[in-house]
Specification:
Blueprint (H helix, E strand, L loop, with lengths): L6 E5 L4 H11 L4 E6 L2 H13 L6 E4 L5 H15 L3 E6 L15 H27 L4 E6 L12 H20 L5 E8 L2 E2 L2 H4 L6 H4 L3 E2 H13 L8 E4 L3
Parallel strand pairs: 1-2, 1-4, 2-3, 4-5, 5-6, 6-9, 7-8
Length: 240
C-alpha cells in the first residue's frame, strides 16, 4: 500500500517494538495514531515523529485492560482520521515472568490475558467496521514465537499468544472476501524492556542474542508498504 499521508494505529507505541514500528512507518510517509497508557512517553515518541515530518500523527492515552477506554479511543481515532485511517498494528503486550502456573500471581494472569489477548480482540472489533468501508486496509497482529511453540514456564503468556494466533487465523477466513487484509507476526525474543518490567533478570549477553526492535519494525513496515496486489499473511522472524 502507498502509506504516504495515510494513518495507521499502533498500540503499545510508547516504547519498545511499538515505538520502532511507528518510527519506521513515519519514515515511509505515514501518520501514526499512537496508543499506550503512558502520556509522557507517548509525547516523546510523538515529538520524534513530528521531527521526521509526520505532522498529523497524534497520541491517545488508553488502557487496553479497560473496554471503555478502547471503545472511546477507537471512536476518536476514526473521527480524527476518517478515510485516511487504513491500518492497525496490534502490538501492545506484557510479559509473564517464567514460572510454574501455581506460582504465577492471579493479578499477573489477569493482566497478561486482558492486555495480550482481549486488548487485541476488542481494539480490532472497534475499528473493523471502519476498515470494511475502505478500498483496502490492513490489520497486523504482533504475536510471538510463544504463540506457535510450547516453551516451559510460559503457560499464561503462551495462552494469550496462542489465542492471538487463533484469532488471526479466523479473521483471515472471515475477511477473505473483504478489503481488509490480516496478518500475524511471530517473532523470537526481541530486545526490549518488556522482560525486565516483569522481573526477568537476563544477562546483557543473553539479551544481545535477541532481535533488535528496530529491525523487527522494518519487517512490519515492509509488510504494510508492499504493492496492493501482494500481501504477506504470516511471517516468522528470528535472529540469526
Amino acid at each position: 500500500m502507498n502509506l504516504s499521508g495515510k494513518a495507521i494505529v499502533v498500540t503499545g507505541a510508547s516504547e519498545g517494538i511499538g515505538r520502532e514500528i511507528a518510527l519506521a512507518l513515519a519514515k515511509r510517509g505515514a501518520n501514526l495514531a499512537l496508543v499506550a497508557r503512558n502520556r509522557d512517553r507517548l509525547d516523546q515518541v510523538l515529538s520524534e515523529l513530528h521531527n521526521l515530518g509526520s505532522g498529523d500523527s497524534k497520541l491517545y492515552v488508553c488502557d487496553l485492560q479497560k473496554l471503555a477506554d478502547i471503545q472511546s479511543t477507537a471512536k476518536q481515532i476514526i473521527q480524527d482520521y476518517q478515510t485516511s485511517l487504513i491500518g492497525l498494528v496490534n502490538n501492545a503486550g506484557i510479559w509473564q515472568k517464567k514460572a510454574p502456573l501455581e506460582e504465577i500471581p492471579d493479578q499477573e494472569i489477569q493482566n497478561v490475558i486482558e492486555t495480550d489477548l482481549l486488548g487485541v480482540i476488542h481494539f480490532t472489533k472497534a475499528l473493523l467496521p471502519h476498515f470494511k468501508t475502505l478500498a483496502q486496509s490492513a490489520i497486523i497482529n504482533i504475536s510471538s514465537r510463544s504463540g506457535i511453540t510450547a516453551q516451559s514456564g510460559q503457560s499464561v503468556y503462551a495462552a494469550a499468544k496462542w489465542g492471538v494466533k487463533g484469532f488471526t487465523e479466523v479473521l483471515k477466513e472471515d475477511l477473505k472476501d473483504s478489503p481488509v487484509h490480516v496478518a500475524g507476526v511471530y517473532q523470537g525474543g526481541t530486545n526490549t524492556d518488556m522482560f525486565h518490567k516483569a522481573g526477568e533478570t537476563w544477562s546483557p549477553e543473553k539479551m544481545a542474542t535477541f532481535i533488535p526492535a528496530a529491525q523487527l519494525a522494518e519487517v512490519v513496515a515492509y509488510m504494510l508498504a508492499l504493492p496492493p496486489q501482494i500481501w504477506l499473511s504470516e511471517i516468522h522472524v528470528e535472529n540469526r
